[in-house]
Amino acid sequence: MNKIKRAIIMASGLGTRLRPLTLTVPKPLLKVGGVVMIESIIDGLLANNISEIHIVTGYLKDCFAYLPDKYPNADIDLIFNEDYQECNNISSLYVARNFLDETMIIDGDQIIRNQQVLTPFFERSGYNSAYITQGTNEWLQQTKNGTVVSCSRNGGQCGFQLYGISRWTKRDSFQLRQDLELEFVQKHNHQAYWDDVAMFCHPDHYQLGIFEMSSSDVIEIDSMKDLEALNESLLKKRRKDL
């Protein structure tokens, strides 16, 4: 059994699909049902005794400055990615590469509804994933004997939908750092997603597995329509509970 020692939260993006809200507030700091997205992640990490947390910022970086004071029991480290406008999020993991060592990597723009999905204990490197049978446009993985054998960027009908939470063993953390440096520095692959490195650029370097969860455990917000629908749903639930 492997155990996560630290987390990297990716929070540098522009959040253009949620404008005008993100003109003044970075997407990870938006509230969903009254809860700040990145705070739901930090709360979940602390509930699982993961207190070393590195947050990669970029767009509106000063907005994140309150987090170390809000969480005095956590070791929160803010890392600025100066390339956040010119490069894709591969640049964010690159600036945090020295902290790849038994690490959980988390997208900062999601709501954690079930803190158990951030448990530090895991068998093999891979992504939190939910099995779907009704089709999706999100990244969709296929497995054989518990090992990921393919991933479609365009989704599909059946398979394991990939979510923005992944765990990396000590061996795979080191390998990911090497492959990341190769792609970003030597190959100048600056417009890639960091996830491309293990999933598409160097899949033969890894034997990724699945950390299975329910699709209701994590909420990803990709558009204003998603945000409005979710807030309305949560409001109706609160009224019903009163």
Automatic annotation (TrEMBL):
Molecular function (Gene Ontology), one example: kinase activity
| Cross-referenced InterPro entries | GlmU-like (IPR050065), NTP_transferase_dom (IPR005835), Nucleotide-diphossugar_trans (IPR029044)
What are the Nucleotidyl transferase domain coordinates in residue numbering?
Answer: 7-149
Q: Does the keyword Transferase apply?
A: yes
Q: Tell whether Glycoprotein is among the UniProt keywords.
A: no
Taxonomic lineage per UniProt? Bacteria, Bacillati, Bacillota, Bacilli, Lactobacillales
> In which domain of life is the source organism classified?
Bacteria
Q: What are the record keywords, sorted?
A: Kinase, Nucleotidyltransferase, Transferase
Protein name from the UniProt record: Choline kinase
